[in-house]
Amino acid sequence: MKNIAVFASGNGSNFQAILDATRSGELNATIQLLVCDRQNAYCIQRAEEANIPSFVFTAKQYESKEHYEAEVISHLKELNVEFIILAGYMRLIGPTILDAFPGKIVNIHPSFLPLFPGKDAIGQALLANVESTGVTVHYVDEGMDTGPIIAQEKIIIDKDETKESLEKKVHDIEHVLYVDTLKKLFNQ
Ligand code: GAR
User: Fold this and answer.
1) CA–CA separation, 130 vs 80, rounded Å?
2) What residues does 24 pair with on adjacent strands?
3) What is the C-alpha to C-alpha distance for residues 156 and 135, in angstroms, rounded to an integer?
4) Active site residue ranges
5) Where in the sequence is the active site (predicted)?
């Protein structure tokens, strides 16, 4: 059984999918902590409802990234967390956390990387008028969505696609792909 922490900044639908898979026994992991950088994010409520502790912080209240990352690490170590799972966490992971968890940080990104890294990847794909986009699960390095790819899935963009319809397709695939990929990493 792997002890994991999920980092999220928003709605937390991927957090929920991972949580459900741990609770059903499908995924051999326990979420020890939710780490969130936005006070009003819905993922915090999801954690509360599931009795999962959360560490919620405001980056601006710290002297530097190094300072808040050091505090995050102290919570993770206390809870024996082995893996960090980023699920819509909209901050770059700095060297402090990268050095403390080498090769143990995974992210999901809503595009077929290396295409459309960074913010609003779904909007970027629509604007670029491409025929397909996708979802990527990858290890995290110091770059923005640049680490080694673990799994990817393509998504066709239909002619009458809207931002809302594409977001739904992306999220539906993310929830399945993330859990399946984590199963391969943890259920050995
Ligand atoms: C997901 O689509 C995730 O891939 C994306 O944020 C969304 C969070 O949704 N992450 C990134 O763009 C990271 N660069 P959720 O809060 O409902 O899980």
Assistant:
1) 43
2) none
3) 11
4) 109
5) 109 (proton donor)
Side-chain half-sphere exposure of 116, counting CA atoms within 13 A: 22
Q: Is the CB of 11 under 6 A from ligand 1?
A: yes
Give every strand in the sheet of 105-109, ordered side by side.
Answer: 54-56, 29-36, 2-8, 83-86, 105-109, 132-139, 149-156
Spans of all domains in the chain? 2-186
- Dihedral sign for Cα 176, 130, 111, 37, please: negative
Q: Is the ipTM of this complex over 0.95?
A: yes
Q: Is the CB of 12 under 6 A from ligand 1?
A: yes
CATH 3.40.980.10 fits 2-186, yes or no: no
CA distance 133 to 155: 5
Q: Which tokens hold the place of 8? A: 């999220």
Ligand 1 atom nearest the C-alpha of 117 is 14
State the Cα torsion 76-78-81-82 to the nearest 10°: 100
Integer Cα distance of 175 and 121 in angstroms: 17
Per-residue pLDDT tens digits for 135-184: 999 999 999 999 999 999 999 999 999 999 999 999 999 999 999 999 99
